[in-house]
Protein backbone atom coordinates (compact mmCIF):
# COMPACT_ATOMS: atom_id res chain seq x y z
CA UNK A 1 0.00 0.00 0.00
CA UNK A 2 1.22 3.49 -0.84
CA UNK A 3 2.53 5.55 2.09
CA UNK A 4 -0.02 8.32 2.25
CA UNK A 5 2.03 10.32 4.73
CA UNK A 6 5.14 10.60 2.57
CA UNK A 7 3.50 10.89 -0.85
CA UNK A 8 0.41 12.95 -0.11
CA UNK A 9 1.72 15.96 -1.99
CA UNK A 10 1.72 13.94 -5.23
CA UNK A 11 -1.82 12.53 -4.98
CA UNK A 12 -3.87 13.86 -7.93
CA UNK A 13 -6.51 16.28 -6.73
CA UNK A 14 -4.92 16.95 -3.33
CA UNK A 15 -6.18 20.18 -1.79
CA UNK A 16 -4.50 22.20 0.98
CA UNK A 17 -6.70 22.18 4.07
CA UNK A 18 -6.94 25.97 3.90
CA UNK A 19 -8.60 25.69 0.45
CA UNK A 20 -11.13 23.00 1.36
CA UNK A 21 -14.80 23.98 1.57
CA UNK A 22 -16.49 23.83 4.95
CA UNK A 23 -17.98 20.35 5.32
CA UNK A 24 -19.16 17.84 7.88
CA UNK A 25 -15.60 16.94 8.91
CA UNK A 26 -14.80 20.52 9.88
CA UNK A 27 -18.13 20.88 11.67
CA UNK A 28 -17.40 17.67 13.59
CA UNK A 29 -14.10 19.13 14.83
CA UNK A 30 -15.88 22.30 15.92
CA UNK A 31 -18.61 20.30 17.68
CA UNK A 32 -16.15 18.12 19.60
CA UNK A 33 -14.12 21.15 20.68
CA UNK A 34 -17.26 23.12 21.59
CA UNK A 35 -18.22 20.69 24.33
CA UNK A 36 -15.18 21.82 26.31
CA UNK A 37 -16.54 25.35 26.36
CA UNK A 38 -20.05 24.20 27.17
CA UNK A 39 -19.00 22.20 30.22
CA UNK A 40 -17.19 25.22 31.68
CA UNK A 41 -20.40 27.27 31.91
CA UNK A 42 -22.42 24.22 32.99
CA UNK A 43 -20.20 23.91 36.07
CA UNK A 44 -20.37 27.66 36.81
CA UNK A 45 -24.18 27.67 36.54
CA UNK A 46 -24.52 24.62 38.78
CA UNK A 47 -22.22 26.17 41.40
CA UNK A 48 -24.47 29.24 41.40
CA UNK A 49 -27.51 27.07 42.13
CA UNK A 50 -25.75 24.95 44.77
CA UNK A 51 -24.91 28.00 46.92
CA UNK A 52 -28.51 29.17 47.63
CA UNK A 53 -29.60 25.55 48.15
CA UNK A 54 -26.86 25.14 50.76
CA UNK A 55 -27.95 28.41 52.38
CA UNK A 56 -31.35 26.79 52.97
CA UNK A 57 -29.84 23.70 54.58
CA UNK A 58 -27.04 25.24 56.64
CA UNK A 59 -27.56 27.29 59.80
CA UNK A 60 -26.03 29.77 59.95
CA UNK A 61 -25.92 30.38 56.22
CA UNK A 62 -22.69 30.06 54.28
CA UNK A 63 -20.27 32.90 54.99
CA UNK A 64 -19.25 35.20 52.12
CA UNK A 65 -15.88 33.41 52.12
CA UNK A 66 -17.48 29.96 51.75
CA UNK A 67 -19.83 31.22 49.05
CA UNK A 68 -16.84 32.65 47.20
CA UNK A 69 -14.85 29.44 47.68
CA UNK A 70 -17.59 27.16 46.34
CA UNK A 71 -18.27 29.53 43.45
CA UNK A 72 -14.62 29.95 42.50
CA UNK A 73 -12.89 26.68 43.36
CA UNK A 74 -13.37 25.27 39.86
CA UNK A 75 -12.00 28.55 38.48
CA UNK A 76 -8.89 28.15 40.64
CA UNK A 77 -8.54 24.70 39.10
CA UNK A 78 -9.00 26.21 35.63
CA UNK A 79 -6.20 28.74 36.28
CA UNK A 80 -3.81 25.95 37.22
CA UNK A 81 -5.03 23.46 34.63
CA UNK A 82 -4.88 25.89 31.70
CA UNK A 83 -1.28 26.83 32.48
CA UNK A 84 -0.08 23.28 33.18
CA UNK A 85 -1.88 21.50 30.36
CA UNK A 86 -1.11 24.29 27.87
CA UNK A 87 2.62 23.96 28.51
CA UNK A 88 2.54 20.15 28.56
CA UNK A 89 0.56 20.02 25.31
CA UNK A 90 3.21 22.15 23.57
CA UNK A 91 5.78 19.57 24.67
CA UNK A 92 3.94 16.24 24.37
CA UNK A 93 1.18 16.94 21.88
CA UNK A 94 -2.46 17.93 22.10
CA UNK A 95 -4.22 14.58 21.75
CA UNK A 96 -3.25 12.98 25.08
CA UNK A 97 -4.54 15.93 27.09
CA UNK A 98 -7.57 16.40 24.84
CA UNK A 99 -8.71 12.96 26.07
CA UNK A 100 -7.33 13.17 29.60
CA UNK A 101 -9.25 16.34 30.49
CA UNK A 102 -12.81 14.98 30.02
CA UNK A 103 -11.78 11.74 31.79
CA UNK A 104 -10.64 13.83 34.76
CA UNK A 105 -13.88 15.84 34.76
CA UNK A 106 -15.99 12.66 34.56
CA UNK A 107 -14.21 10.96 37.48
CA UNK A 108 -14.38 14.05 39.71
CA UNK A 109 -18.06 14.80 39.03
CA UNK A 110 -19.16 11.21 39.75
CA UNK A 111 -17.08 11.27 42.96
CA UNK A 112 -18.78 14.52 43.98
CA UNK A 113 -22.24 12.97 43.62
CA UNK A 114 -21.38 10.10 45.95
CA UNK A 115 -19.40 12.17 48.46
CA UNK A 116 -22.34 14.52 48.90
CA UNK A 117 -20.80 16.84 51.52
CA UNK A 118 -19.70 20.44 51.18
CA UNK A 119 -15.94 19.94 51.49
CA UNK A 120 -15.90 16.79 49.36
CA UNK A 121 -17.80 18.46 46.53
CA UNK A 122 -15.59 21.54 46.83
CA UNK A 123 -12.52 19.35 46.28
CA UNK A 124 -14.19 17.64 43.32
CA UNK A 125 -15.06 21.01 41.78
CA UNK A 126 -11.37 21.93 41.97
CA UNK A 127 -10.39 18.75 40.07
CA UNK A 128 -13.16 19.42 37.53
CA UNK A 129 -11.64 22.87 37.06
CA UNK A 130 -8.23 21.35 36.30
CA UNK A 131 -9.78 19.43 33.42
CA UNK A 132 -11.71 22.43 32.14
CA UNK A 133 -8.52 24.50 32.21
CA UNK A 134 -6.92 21.99 29.88
CA UNK A 135 -9.94 22.27 27.61
CA UNK A 136 -9.56 26.03 27.39
CA UNK A 137 -5.92 25.71 26.30
CA UNK A 138 -6.64 23.12 23.58
CA UNK A 139 -10.09 23.66 22.05
CA UNK A 140 -9.24 26.80 20.10
CA UNK A 141 -5.92 25.33 18.93
CA UNK A 142 -7.56 22.40 17.16
CA UNK A 143 -10.24 24.56 15.57
CA UNK A 144 -8.00 27.42 14.46
CA UNK A 145 -5.53 25.16 12.63
CA UNK A 146 -7.97 22.89 10.79
CA UNK A 147 -10.44 25.36 9.28
CA UNK A 148 -10.42 26.67 5.68
CA UNK A 149 -8.96 30.09 4.97
CA UNK A 150 -11.24 32.81 6.29
CA UNK A 151 -13.13 30.48 8.63
CA UNK A 152 -10.61 30.18 11.48
CA UNK A 153 -11.67 33.10 13.72
CA UNK A 154 -15.34 32.50 12.88
CA UNK A 155 -15.25 28.81 13.84
CA UNK A 156 -13.20 29.52 16.97
CA UNK A 157 -16.01 31.91 17.84
CA UNK A 158 -18.62 29.26 17.12
CA UNK A 159 -16.76 26.97 19.52
CA UNK A 160 -17.01 29.60 22.24
CA UNK A 161 -20.71 30.09 21.48
CA UNK A 162 -21.36 26.65 22.97
CA UNK A 163 -20.74 28.20 26.40
CA UNK A 164 -24.08 29.99 26.04
CA UNK A 165 -25.76 26.63 25.48
CA UNK A 166 -24.03 25.42 28.65
CA UNK A 167 -25.69 28.19 30.69
CA UNK A 168 -29.10 27.49 29.20
CA UNK A 169 -28.92 23.69 29.50
CA UNK A 170 -27.61 23.78 33.07
CA UNK A 171 -30.17 26.34 34.24
CA UNK A 172 -33.04 24.43 32.61
CA UNK A 173 -31.98 21.06 34.06
CA UNK A 174 -31.39 22.55 37.52
CA UNK A 175 -34.85 24.14 37.44
CA UNK A 176 -36.42 20.84 36.38
CA UNK A 177 -34.64 18.88 39.12
CA UNK A 178 -35.55 21.39 41.85
CA UNK A 179 -39.20 21.61 40.77
CA UNK A 180 -39.43 17.84 40.48
CA UNK A 181 -37.98 17.10 43.93
CA UNK A 182 -38.77 20.35 45.81
CA UNK A 183 -35.93 19.45 48.15
CA UNK A 184 -32.77 21.47 48.75
CA UNK A 185 -31.00 18.20 49.68
CA UNK A 186 -30.86 17.34 45.97
CA UNK A 187 -27.89 19.68 45.42
CA UNK A 188 -25.13 17.00 44.99
CA UNK A 189 -27.22 15.28 42.28
CA UNK A 190 -26.78 18.35 40.06
CA UNK A 191 -23.26 17.10 39.31
CA UNK A 192 -24.76 14.30 37.19
CA UNK A 193 -25.27 17.01 34.55
CA UNK A 194 -21.49 17.55 34.49
CA UNK A 195 -20.78 13.82 34.46
CA UNK A 196 -23.08 13.21 31.49
CA UNK A 197 -21.48 16.01 29.47
CA UNK A 198 -17.95 14.78 30.27
CA UNK A 199 -18.86 11.21 29.26
CA UNK A 200 -20.13 12.46 25.88
CA UNK A 201 -16.92 14.45 25.38
CA UNK A 202 -14.76 11.42 26.10
CA UNK A 203 -16.70 9.15 23.74
CA UNK A 204 -16.46 11.65 20.88
CA UNK A 205 -12.70 12.01 21.36
CA UNK A 206 -11.88 8.31 21.11
CA UNK A 207 -11.70 8.72 17.33
CA UNK A 208 -9.62 11.88 17.23
CA UNK A 209 -6.06 12.58 16.12
CA UNK A 210 -2.91 14.49 16.95
CA UNK A 211 -2.66 18.15 15.97
CA UNK A 212 -1.08 18.38 12.48
CA UNK A 213 0.44 21.78 13.26
CA UNK A 214 2.03 20.41 16.43
CA UNK A 215 3.46 17.44 14.53
CA UNK A 216 4.80 19.72 11.80
CA UNK A 217 6.38 22.11 14.28
CA UNK A 218 8.24 19.12 15.78
CA UNK A 219 9.61 17.89 12.47
CA UNK A 220 7.04 15.09 11.97
CA UNK A 221 5.92 16.14 8.47
CA UNK A 222 4.78 12.69 7.36
CA UNK A 223 2.72 12.17 10.50
CA UNK A 224 1.27 15.65 10.11
CA UNK A 225 0.14 14.84 6.57
CA UNK A 226 -1.43 11.60 7.79
CA UNK A 227 -3.25 13.42 10.61
CA UNK A 228 -4.67 15.98 8.16
CA UNK A 229 -6.11 13.15 6.05
CA UNK A 230 -7.57 11.43 9.11
CA UNK A 231 -9.28 14.65 10.11
CA UNK A 232 -10.36 16.00 6.72
CA UNK A 233 -10.33 13.14 4.20
CA UNK A 234 -7.87 11.55 1.73
CA UNK A 235 -7.58 14.59 -0.55
CA UNK A 236 -6.64 17.01 2.24
CA UNK A 237 -3.01 18.05 2.60
CA UNK A 238 -1.02 20.57 4.58
CA UNK A 239 -0.68 24.04 3.05
CA UNK A 240 2.65 24.75 1.37
CA UNK A 241 4.11 26.88 4.13
CA UNK A 242 7.59 26.91 5.63
CA UNK A 243 7.76 24.57 8.58
CA UNK A 244 8.72 26.20 11.85
CA UNK A 245 10.34 23.44 13.83
CA UNK A 246 10.60 23.38 17.59
CA UNK A 247 14.29 24.16 17.13
CA UNK A 248 13.56 27.56 15.64
CA UNK A 249 14.15 30.91 17.25
CA UNK A 250 11.93 30.12 20.24
CA UNK A 251 14.09 29.42 23.31
CA UNK A 252 14.04 25.74 24.24
CA UNK A 253 14.22 26.12 28.02
CA UNK A 254 12.15 29.25 28.39
CA UNK A 255 10.25 29.35 31.69
CA UNK A 256 6.89 31.04 32.20
CA UNK A 257 8.39 34.32 33.41
CA UNK A 258 10.73 34.53 30.41
CA UNK A 259 7.81 33.80 28.11
CA UNK A 260 5.78 36.59 29.69
CA UNK A 261 8.64 39.09 29.42
CA UNK A 262 9.30 38.21 25.77
CA UNK A 263 5.60 38.47 24.89
CA UNK A 264 4.61 41.24 27.31
CA UNK A 265 2.18 43.16 25.10
CA UNK A 266 0.51 39.99 23.85
CA UNK A 267 0.15 38.68 27.41
CA UNK A 268 -1.50 41.93 28.56
CA UNK A 269 -3.79 42.14 25.53
CA UNK A 270 -4.94 38.52 25.75
CA UNK A 271 -4.96 38.20 29.55
CA UNK A 272 -6.11 41.40 31.27
CA UNK A 273 -9.36 41.90 29.28
CA UNK A 274 -10.06 38.19 29.81
CA UNK A 275 -9.69 38.80 33.55
CA UNK A 276 -12.11 41.75 33.37
CA UNK A 277 -14.54 39.66 31.35
CA UNK A 278 -14.22 36.94 33.99
CA UNK A 279 -15.95 39.11 36.58
CA UNK A 280 -18.97 39.44 34.29
CA UNK A 281 -19.13 35.85 33.08
CA UNK A 282 -18.29 34.14 36.36
CA UNK A 283 -18.57 36.72 39.14
CA UNK A 284 -22.03 37.87 38.07
CA UNK A 285 -22.79 34.56 36.31
CA UNK A 286 -22.20 32.30 39.32
CA UNK A 287 -24.19 34.56 41.64
CA UNK A 288 -26.90 35.37 39.10
CA UNK A 289 -29.67 33.56 41.04
CA UNK A 290 -28.61 35.37 44.23
CA UNK A 291 -28.37 38.74 42.42
CA UNK A 292 -31.81 38.17 40.92
CA UNK A 293 -33.16 37.74 44.47
CA UNK A 294 -31.17 40.74 45.76
CA UNK A 295 -32.54 42.95 42.97
CA UNK A 296 -36.09 41.67 43.56
CA UNK A 297 -36.52 40.49 39.97
CA UNK A 298 -38.11 37.10 40.68
CA UNK A 299 -41.74 36.37 41.50
CA UNK A 300 -42.03 35.65 45.22
CA UNK A 301 -45.23 34.93 47.15
CA UNK A 302 -45.24 35.38 50.91
CA UNK A 303 -45.02 32.03 52.64
CA UNK A 304 -43.50 30.30 49.60
CA UNK A 305 -41.04 27.51 50.58
CA UNK A 306 -37.46 28.69 50.33
CA UNK A 307 -36.52 26.02 47.81
CA UNK A 308 -39.22 27.37 45.46
CA UNK A 309 -37.83 30.87 46.01
CA UNK A 310 -34.53 29.53 44.64
CA UNK A 311 -36.42 27.86 41.77
CA UNK A 312 -38.05 31.18 40.83
CA UNK A 313 -34.64 32.91 40.77
CA UNK A 314 -33.26 30.10 38.59
CA UNK A 315 -36.23 30.62 36.26
CA UNK A 316 -35.32 34.31 35.81
CA UNK A 317 -31.68 33.24 35.42
CA UNK A 318 -32.76 30.92 32.60
CA UNK A 319 -34.53 33.75 30.78
CA UNK A 320 -31.52 36.05 31.15
CA UNK A 321 -29.22 33.23 29.99
CA UNK A 322 -31.24 32.80 26.79
CA UNK A 323 -30.02 36.22 25.56
CA UNK A 324 -26.41 34.97 25.67
CA UNK A 325 -26.81 32.95 22.47
CA UNK A 326 -28.04 35.90 20.36
CA UNK A 327 -25.09 37.87 21.75
CA UNK A 328 -22.64 35.28 20.49
CA UNK A 329 -24.41 35.14 17.12
CA UNK A 330 -24.18 38.92 16.78
CA UNK A 331 -20.46 38.77 17.56
CA UNK A 332 -19.95 35.99 14.99
CA UNK A 333 -21.73 38.08 12.35
CA UNK A 334 -19.35 40.96 13.07
CA UNK A 335 -16.33 38.64 12.81
CA UNK A 336 -17.66 37.23 9.55
CA UNK A 337 -17.95 40.78 8.21
CA UNK A 338 -14.25 41.32 8.98
CA UNK A 339 -14.81 43.86 11.74
CA UNK A 340 -11.61 44.15 13.80
CA UNK A 341 -11.89 41.79 16.73
CA UNK A 342 -10.33 44.28 19.17
CA UNK A 343 -13.00 46.81 18.14
CA UNK A 344 -15.75 44.26 18.83
CA UNK A 345 -14.22 43.51 22.22
CA UNK A 346 -13.83 47.16 23.18
CA UNK A 347 -17.36 48.09 22.08
CA UNK A 348 -18.74 45.14 24.01
CA UNK A 349 -16.99 46.24 27.19
CA UNK A 350 -18.23 49.83 26.91
CA UNK A 351 -21.82 48.73 26.22
CA UNK A 352 -21.67 46.34 29.19
CA UNK A 353 -20.60 49.22 31.43
CA UNK A 354 -23.49 51.39 30.19
CA UNK A 355 -25.99 48.56 30.72
CA UNK A 356 -24.83 48.05 34.30
CA UNK A 357 -25.10 51.79 35.01
CA UNK A 358 -28.70 51.77 33.76
CA UNK A 359 -29.42 48.67 35.87
CA UNK A 360 -27.96 50.43 38.93
CA UNK A 361 -30.10 53.53 38.31
CA UNK A 362 -33.21 51.38 37.85
CA UNK A 363 -32.59 49.56 41.12
CA UNK A 364 -31.65 52.69 43.08
CA UNK A 365 -34.65 54.76 41.95
CA UNK A 366 -37.14 51.88 41.98
CA UNK A 367 -38.06 51.95 38.30
CA UNK A 368 -40.31 49.29 36.84
CA UNK A 369 -38.55 45.91 37.17
CA UNK A 370 -38.66 45.44 33.40
CA UNK A 371 -36.07 48.23 33.14
CA UNK A 372 -33.84 46.14 35.37
CA UNK A 373 -34.50 42.89 33.53
CA UNK A 374 -33.98 44.62 30.16
CA UNK A 375 -30.71 46.18 31.35
CA UNK A 376 -29.52 42.83 32.70
CA UNK A 377 -30.33 41.18 29.37
CA UNK A 378 -28.54 43.99 27.49
CA UNK A 379 -25.49 43.41 29.68
CA UNK A 380 -25.48 39.70 28.84
CA UNK A 381 -26.06 40.43 25.14
CA UNK A 382 -23.08 42.78 24.86
CA UNK A 383 -20.87 40.71 27.17
CA UNK A 384 -21.24 37.68 24.92
CA UNK A 385 -21.13 39.68 21.68
CA UNK A 386 -17.80 41.18 22.65
CA UNK A 387 -15.56 40.25 25.60
CA UNK A 388 -16.77 36.68 26.25
CA UNK A 389 -16.40 35.75 22.58
CA UNK A 390 -13.36 37.76 21.56
CA UNK A 391 -11.14 37.01 24.55
CA UNK A 392 -11.31 33.39 23.34
CA UNK A 393 -10.78 34.21 19.66
CA UNK A 394 -7.90 36.63 20.18
CA UNK A 395 -5.06 34.56 21.79
CA UNK A 396 -4.64 32.03 18.92
CA UNK A 397 -4.33 35.01 16.55
CA UNK A 398 -1.35 36.60 18.28
CA UNK A 399 0.84 33.59 19.18
CA UNK A 400 2.83 31.36 16.75
CA UNK A 401 2.02 27.65 16.64
CA UNK A 402 5.14 26.55 18.53
CA UNK A 403 4.06 28.48 21.66
CA UNK A 404 0.33 28.75 21.01
CA UNK A 405 -0.69 26.21 23.64
CA UNK A 406 1.34 28.04 26.28
CA UNK A 407 0.11 31.47 25.16
CA UNK A 408 -3.54 30.47 25.06
CA UNK A 409 -3.20 28.59 28.34
CA UNK A 410 -1.59 31.60 30.01
CA UNK A 411 -4.33 33.91 28.74
CA UNK A 412 -6.97 31.52 30.06
CA UNK A 413 -5.16 31.35 33.41
CA UNK A 414 -5.03 35.14 33.76
CA UNK A 415 -8.69 35.29 32.76
CA UNK A 416 -9.66 32.80 35.39
CA UNK A 417 -7.64 34.65 38.05
CA UNK A 418 -9.88 37.61 37.31
CA UNK A 419 -12.90 35.34 37.50
CA UNK A 420 -11.77 33.95 40.88
CA UNK A 421 -11.33 37.47 42.26
CA UNK A 422 -14.76 38.39 40.90
CA UNK A 423 -16.48 35.37 42.43
CA UNK A 424 -14.89 36.03 45.83
CA UNK A 425 -15.67 39.75 45.51
CA UNK A 426 -19.40 39.51 44.71
CA UNK A 427 -20.61 38.08 48.07
CA UNK A 428 -18.31 40.47 49.96
CA UNK A 429 -19.70 43.44 48.00
CA UNK A 430 -23.25 42.18 48.52
CA UNK A 431 -22.72 42.12 52.27
CA UNK A 432 -20.88 45.48 52.34
CA UNK A 433 -23.09 47.56 50.07
CA UNK A 434 -25.76 45.38 48.52
CA UNK A 435 -26.56 44.89 44.86
CA UNK A 436 -25.90 48.55 44.04
CA UNK A 437 -22.22 48.32 45.02
CA UNK A 438 -21.87 45.12 42.96
CA UNK A 439 -23.21 46.90 39.89
CA UNK A 440 -20.99 50.00 40.30
CA UNK A 441 -17.79 47.97 40.74
CA UNK A 442 -18.70 45.69 37.84
CA UNK A 443 -19.31 48.66 35.53
CA UNK A 444 -15.88 50.06 36.42
CA UNK A 445 -14.20 46.72 35.64
CA UNK A 446 -15.94 46.56 32.25
CA UNK A 447 -14.65 50.06 31.44
CA UNK A 448 -11.12 49.01 32.44
CA UNK A 449 -11.31 46.05 30.04
CA UNK A 450 -12.25 48.41 27.21
CA UNK A 451 -9.35 50.78 27.93
CA UNK A 452 -6.75 47.97 28.00
CA UNK A 453 -8.14 46.54 24.76
CA UNK A 454 -7.96 49.91 23.02
CA UNK A 455 -4.39 50.67 24.12
CA UNK A 456 -2.74 47.27 23.74
CA UNK A 457 -4.75 46.25 20.67
CA UNK A 458 -3.20 49.21 18.86
CA UNK A 459 0.30 48.43 20.20
CA UNK A 460 0.24 44.74 19.18
CA UNK A 461 -1.24 45.54 15.77
CA UNK A 462 1.57 48.03 15.12
CA UNK A 463 4.33 45.79 16.47
CA UNK A 464 3.22 42.65 14.59
CA UNK A 465 1.99 44.58 11.55
CA UNK A 466 -1.31 42.68 11.64
CA UNK A 467 -4.92 43.83 11.72
CA UNK A 468 -6.58 42.56 14.90
What would you note in describing this structure?
The structure is a single chain. By secondary structure, this protein is mostly helical. The chain has a single domain (14-207, 254-464), classed as MFS general substrate transporter like domains (Growth Hormone, Chain: A). It has 18 helices and 2 strands. α11 (264-286) crosses α18 (404-464) and α17 (387-398) crosses α18 (404-464). The protein starts with a helix and ends with a helix. The relative contact order is 0.15. Mean pLDDT is 87; it is low at 1-10 and 242-251.
Offer a quick outline of the entry.
The protein has helices at 4-7, 24-57, 64-92, 94-115, 118-146, 152-181, 191-204, 212-217, 221-232, 256-262, 264-286, 288-294, 306-322, 324-336, 341-365, 369-385, 387-398, 404-464; strands at residues 15-16, 236-237.
Q: How much of the sequence is in beta strands?
A: under 5%
Walk across the major sheet and give the strand order.
1-2
**Number of beta-strand segments:** 2
Q: Report the mean per-residue pLDDT as an integer.
A: 87
Choose one word for the global shape. Answer: globular
Structural class by helix and strand composition: mainly alpha
Radius of gyration: 22 Å
Number of domains: 1
What would you give as the CATH superfamily? Answer: MFS general substrate transporter like domains
